[in-house]
Every structure is written in structure tokens, then in C-alpha cells.
Hints:
Four copies of one chain form a homotetramer.
Chain A: H1 5-27, H2 34-41, H3 45-51, H4 55-78, H5 84-101, H6 103-115, H7 117-122, H8 126-144, H9 154-174, H10 181-197
Helix pairs in contact in A: 1-2, 1-4, 1-6, 2-3, 4-8, 5-6, 5-8, 5-9, 5-10, 6-9, 8-9
Chain A binds a DNA duplex (21 and 21 nucleotides) through helix 1 and helix 3.
Amino acid sequence: MTPPKDRSRTDKRERILAAAVKVFAERGFYNAKVSQVAAEAGVADGTIYLYFKNKDDLLISAFEDRMSWINSRLTNELETRQPPVDRLRRFFAMHLLLAVHSRDLAEFITVELRQSARFIKEYKNPKFAEYLNILRGLIVEGQQQGAFRRDVDARIVTRALFGMLDEVMLTLVLSRKTPTEEQVAFYVDQLEKVVLQGLLLNPDAS
Amino acid sequence: MTPPKDRSRTDKRERILAAAVKVFAERGFYNAKVSQVAAEAGVADGTIYLYFKNKDDLLISAFEDRMSWINSRLTNELETRQPPVDRLRRFFAMHLLLAVHSRDLAEFITVELRQSARFIKEYKNPKFAEYLNILRGLIVEGQQQGAFRRDVDARIVTRALFGMLDEVMLTLVLSRKTPTEEQVAFYVDQLEKVVLQGLLLNPDAS
Amino acid sequence: MTPPKDRSRTDKRERILAAAVKVFAERGFYNAKVSQVAAEAGVADGTIYLYFKNKDDLLISAFEDRMSWINSRLTNELETRQPPVDRLRRFFAMHLLLAVHSRDLAEFITVELRQSARFIKEYKNPKFAEYLNILRGLIVEGQQQGAFRRDVDARIVTRALFGMLDEVMLTLVLSRKTPTEEQVAFYVDQLEKVVLQGLLLNPDAS
Amino acid sequence: MTPPKDRSRTDKRERILAAAVKVFAERGFYNAKVSQVAAEAGVADGTIYLYFKNKDDLLISAFEDRMSWINSRLTNELETRQPPVDRLRRFFAMHLLLAVHSRDLAEFITVELRQSARFIKEYKNPKFAEYLNILRGLIVEGQQQGAFRRDVDARIVTRALFGMLDEVMLTLVLSRKTPTEEQVAFYVDQLEKVVLQGLLLNPDAS
DNA sequence: TATGAATGAGAATTCATTCAT
DNA sequence: GATGAATGAATTCTCATTCAT
Lengths: 206, 206, 206, 206
């Protein structure tokens, strides 16, 4: 019984993508060698070029594929009837939990998205835009429902919150050992205190 | 009468650093060629190696030199008797104003610090640590003086605020045209609303 | 009722040869990919290796097969009782008419024979030798019958005439549009004037 | 006393060109490796790319440089007051003597011009065109002065004569040993008999 | 010190060929 | 026989770094 061709092809493509995520996360795009990705995937160097146009394409494909997966999980998880505040908390948690459950991927996305800032901007980046849109949707909804203040631009807040999450994830990901879920919960709690309630003890006085 | 040698050396070193900041900002560290930096500095390729050990050292030196300058300006500016809240505002503003007054430098720091996340972390990064320390000092002081809430870890808040500022600066820096001071003031105002007063309209209810 | 195997084999081999002629003519041997030949022939890449040892063998086989065909047509056409001069004219015409009736083949032979000058010489080339022999036979016969001058070496004349025809065919084959029979007739006429009657208006004076 | 920079640069460029002519002649463009050319020239691989854009450019440059040299020698030699017939003879001789005096170059030009027929046509080839123009000038002048028949197109005759010379040179160049000047003189004599006086013993009868 | 030509290690990519299905 | 996915050897070209001048 031969495996269906599509299955086999898909498997190999996926193996290469997983290897790329791992190797790019470990060494960074520019220091990673295509041959290292091939070795990690257990295929010949040339095989990579059967599935991807070149090294850049491999990076972009890995990024898009993984972001798609993240976006669809987020979308599923957040399409609840819960109040916006709870969903924003959940978003924070899911963002940071990536460092617990898929450390390679967390590192890949955190480091590569930055490493390739220009690169990725130039070639557009619809999946990342989608990610930000999900976050922005939460903010806007919260504003409409009267949960969040309306005197701030949702677009700017989105960026600010993403920056926060991203930087915190970077510290998690660069630390010697993988964080636990409890540690992540603590971080989420801290971030909420800052951005939901604000740092000021006596806001009216400000 | 030739200029004092030290002066001349210093000048050339500075010219190379300025060129590195510009070229690395424009093309990214890995895509920038040493010969492009040399050309921009108006020196021969080999001359760079009289002042810096190698390309990595040039990056680190440029980063540290510029961060030192930024840190000292910050320190000067913030050693006032003003209340912590005002100083935090001032910190936000100074961070983002870099995009207005030294766009190359803002881009260099934003993009390179990311691009070289691991790289720069691995080789330690005392100047960046110092920058974060200044910010943390403001938080801690605010907490001690009763202006900021005490139930958050200053270290985490520091990271979160830095991430916010960094991400917002990235958007400023990657946009087609240099922002104005007014635009930056608007951004600062928005960020303050989020992190000082909090997003929630009715915090007690949360 | 399946077709006899030999027939099927022959067909496929022939399809591959035709494809090779076409693709090698279009792109040149070194720039042509085996996979392009396979695609043109409508077979899998690997199939080519069931019929030919390797890419070189495919080139040689295509060349020999086509030259055999050309030689046999020439032999048929020229085994008449016509005077040598007329047969030489006919030879010229048949050579150049290939550009009209089998442009791919004409291009393949003209360009590849040159491209592979050494290559083909090294591996011997009996079919090409046979082609030259037919031409030489005409010269020798003409000399014996007193139609052509005897104070020239038939071998050298053969080479010279072939070079002439080959170069003229190259120009025909590289021109934008396929030449017509009339154009070819004109070229033949011109070449005859040169090599049969000579360029000199007043030969005795020379 | 340092050698003038231009001198040194020119020398190295020339060494690389000479090496390219030799190696390309020996192995053909596609089978020749850039590293072989570098080794032959006694420089590092990378040095070649300081003087030439890429391997193609090296081929074209070598071809153009050598053709320029040939053209200027031809021009000098042929700008005499001698009758066209003598100058045509001289042209034949000079063409073929290349095989005696610069065997590598003769082989390079003969084989590469063919090997790269398409390649060179596509990228234009002014130096080769100039060579043909010199030859055509002789024909036309001969026609104008009444030495050569006028009922042939000089352009076609030019091509035909070049093809003859080229093919004969190919045989000289591919033979085991370098021909002598005497042998070349014999070939020239044979070619003259064919194209000046014509093959026919009794032209009027034709 | 300064130069910039030269170096050569290193990496991405191609493609003829193989072989399991 | 036929397929075409996989292989990996081979090659071009780049560019950080060196060093003779």
C-alpha cells in the first residue's frame, strides 16, 4: 500500500518547514545554512529546491505557514461570547504560551520577524497583518462595547500591545530554560495590570 | 600644522561609525558590505580594520557608541526634580523623537537591535542594559514615591514599556516620511493613556 | 491488441530524438536541460535513460540518426547520371534547403556541430565523415571526368565548400524568418558563381 | 620604483585574458572552469571578478580583445596600394597563419565563435562584424575596380569566403601538430584556385 | 597610518542521473 | 517498461579580511 503521493509530498514539505523553523530560530536566517536545514529535515540539499524557490522563499513560506496556523488557532479560541477584556487576556496568554509549547516557533517568529523587518515589510506580510487585525478587532470591539476607552487610536494601541507582547516573549525565549505555564500566567497578569488598569495609582490626579 | 593625531584618529573613527550607522540602517547588517561603509565614510576598505577588529566589532562599536550618547542625554535630561510621571513622559518622548531628529540612528537601533537579537544578547550589551536601567529607575522611583502601582515587577514593566516604544518607533521609522514633532507628541500622548491610566474605562469593575 | 513492442520502443525513441533536436537547436546543448527534452517528448525524465546512456549519448545519437537520414536522401538524389556540375549544384541546394524544410534540424546540425567541434571530433563522427565523402566523391568524379580542375586537392576543396555551405546555412538559420525556396535558390546561384566560375573576371591575367 | 598602477592592472587583466583564451580553446567555454582560468593566469579565483563581471563577460571580453587586435593588424597590413586580388590573397593568408603563430587564439576563435553562435549573436558582436567588413571591403573594391565579377552579392560572398577560411582553419587547428607556414601557403593557394578562378575547367560551357 | 588590489573560504543553487514504486 | 522525486556533486560568484606598497 503506497502512501498517497500528496501525502508524501506534504510530509516532506512539512518536514522541511519544521527544520527551517528550528534552524532559523537557532542561528538566525543569515547564519543558517541551507544545508543545515536539509540535514535537520533529513533530506538532500537539492530537495529543498523542489519545494521552495530559494532560501528567501523558504523563510517566507515557513513564516506564513506558521502564522496561518497561529491565526486560525487564535480565531477559533477567540470567537467566543466572552467579554472583550477576557478575550484580550486570552490573546495575551496565547501569545506568550507559544514560548512554552513551541519554543522553536516562538523564537523563530520573534527573532525572524525582527531580523527581517525590512525584508518582510518589503515583500508584504499578509499573515502578520492578519495577526495584528485580530488584536485590533478585540480593541475596537472593546471600545464599541464601552469596555475600553475611546480616546485612543486602536491602530496605535494595537502596535503598542504587540510590541509589549513581542518584547516580553523575546525575553522568555532567550532565557536559558523554557518557561512554565505558571510563569507565563504571571507575566500575563503583570501586563494586564499595566495596560488595562494603568500604572498610575491615582489617575485622576494626573 | 597638522591637526593633533588624536583628533584626526577620532575624526576618522567617528566618520566610520556614522557611515556604519547609515549603511546598516539602510541595508541591514548582513546585507551591508564593509566596502559600502568605507565608501560612505570616505576611507579605504582596509582603513576600517585599523579602527575595528572586524565587521561584527564595527556593529557592536557603533551600537555602543550611539547608545552611550543616548544614555548620557537621557541622564542629563531626566535628572530633574520633576515628578516621576513627567519624567516617564519625557522618556517616551525622547525615545520616539529620535525618529525625528536622527532617523538613521533610530532605524539602526530599532532594526539592528532586533536583527541581531541573539548576536547582541550573546555578546552582552551593557549600553542597552543601561538604557533599560534608566527606564527601570523611573518606574521604581515612581513606585517608591507612591505615584505608580507597586503590585507589578518593575523589571517586567520596563521590558513591556520598552517593547511598546520600540515597536511604535519601528512603525515611525519604516514609514515613507520622517514624522514631525507634533506627530510624535500625539503618539506619546496615546501611549500614556494606555500605560498610565489603563485601557479600562471602569477599572474597579474588572 | 497492443502495438508490437518494437514499434512502441521505436516510436518513443524517435520522439525523444526529435525532441532533442528541437531543444538542442533552440537552446544549445549545454543550456538545454534533459528535463526539457523529456517534456518536449512527452516522457518522464528517467525514460530518456532507458534509451540513451546519458546526455552526451543523446546528442551523438540525435546527430548520427539525423545525419544518416540526410546521407541516405543525398545518396538517393545524387546517384543519377547527371553531369557532376549539376550534381554539385543539387548538393548545394539540398544542403541549404534543410533550412527551409527542417529548420530545427538545420539549426541543430549547424550550431551543434560547431558547438561540439571538439566533442564530436574526439568521439569520431562517421556520419559526418560520410557526408563529406559524398561531397568529395562529387568533386573527384568531376575531376576525373574533366569537368573540374585537377590542380586542387579534393579533400581541401571539400572542406572549403562545406565551410561555405555551413556558414551560409548558419546565416539562414539564425535569421528571424524561415527562408523560402526561392531565396535558397538565389543563394545557391551565388555560391556557384563563386566556386564554379570563380570571382575573377579575367582569370588568365591573374 | 613601483610599477605604475595602470601598468600592473593592465598586466593582470591581460594575463587573465590570455589564460581564458588558452583554457577556453582547450576545453571549450562550458567545460572550462573559472578556477582553471584563474590557475592558468596565476591569480586567485576571485581576482577574475575584479576585472570581469562574470564568466560570460570574460568570454566576450577575450573574444573582443583578440578580435580587435586581429582587426587592427589586418587593417594595417591591407591598407596598401596593392591590387584587390593580392590583398584578398593576403587576407586568406593572414587568416590561416593565425593557426601557425597563435594556435590557442586560432582555436579559441574558431571553436568559440561556433560554440557560442547563438550566444554571441544575441549579444551582438561588433568586432566580428568589423572583421567581416574588412573582408567585404576587399570584395567590393575588387568589384568596383573591375577585378571581381559584379553579378554576386558582396555580402553573400563575404560569408561564403569566411566560412571557407573558418572551416579550413578548424581542420588546421584540430590536427595533431601545428601547421607550418609552407603548409598554410599551400592551403591559401588551393583556396584561391577555387574561389578566384573557379572549379570549372571550361566555365563558358557551364 | 592609509590604501585598495588580491585573496580564497564559503554558500546557494543547478541539474544529470538514479532508483523505489 | 515508465515514472518523477530525490540525490549530491559540482560550480559560480561574493565579500570579509589581509598585506605589500
